[in-house]
Amino acid sequence: MFIYKICIILFLVGICKGDTGYGKENCQATIQTLLKKSIPQSIAKARQAKIKAQEDENHNQGTVVAGIAAGTIIRDFVRLNQLSVITTGAALDTIGVAVRNAGYAGSRARLIDNPRPKCGQSDFSAIIKREIGQFYGKNYQKCLTSIQADKLNYDLKESVSCINKSKFSDLSKQIDQLTKCLKRFAGKCSSHQH
Predict the structure, then answer these.
(1) Distance (Å, rounded) from C-alpha 183 to C-alpha 167?
(2) DSSP label of 194
(3) Where in the chain are the domains?
(4) How far apart are CA 145 and CA 148, in angstroms?
């Protein structure tokens, strides 16, 4: 009875090795839902958010660059028009200020980037196809060790790292849930392997 109470307490904090609701059938359904619906939707949402954020940043930096360029041209035009004689010193001063402003504008223009992320669903799918197919095949019946599941978790998160910056995002949580289900099978590996 005492051991039973300890197991209940450990179950409540998620340490007990008993069934925690992710039975084999439950996990297969969860894996299918995550791979076919939830994770692809989260990747698409994160990708769109990343594109929108980069487009906004590009707009902000472009506005700064255009302001610097327009301000420099207007200031130099007005300044040179006020001079009755353009001396070498005035010309060099104007060129120096223009070069300085161009350098500053260039440093801001460098922050403008292609809004399309360089990672996403295809990278994630390639890892799923290679790794999960290798261990589970079509019906998720083979064994995956806990270490392999942890490496898979890392690889999957890395494959979408350019659009998924937070370890607390829905996408990260879904990858963790997928790995948890895959690890569920790992406990059965020792009894099925020779």
Answers:
(1) 19
(2) -
(3) 23-187
(4) 5
What pLDDT digit, counting tens, does each position of 117-169 carry? 888 888 888 888 877 665 555 554 456 677 888 888 899 999 998 888 777 78
**Closest C-alpha to 182, from 35, 16, 3:** 35
pTM of the model: 0.65
pLDDT tens, residue by residue, 73-86: 898 888 888 888 88
Helix axes 146-159, 170-186, angle to 10 degrees: 160
d(CA 139, CA 46): 29
Sign of CA dihedral 6, 12, 15, 19: positive
Distance between CA atoms of 92 and 27, rounded to whole angstroms?
73
CB-based burial of residue 97 (10 Å sphere; 0-12 exposed, 13-18 middle, 19+ buried)?
Answer: middle
pLDDT for 28-57, tens place per residue? Answer: 788 888 888 999 999 999 999 889 999 999
Q: How far is CA 131 from the centre of its chain?
A: 20
How far is it, in rounded angstroms, from Cα 30 to Cα 176? 12
For residue 4, give the amino acid letter: Y
Q: 64: pLDDT confidence band, cut at 50, 70 and 90?
A: very high
The secondary structure of the chain in percent helix, strand, coil, rounded to multiples of 5, reads 75, 0, 25
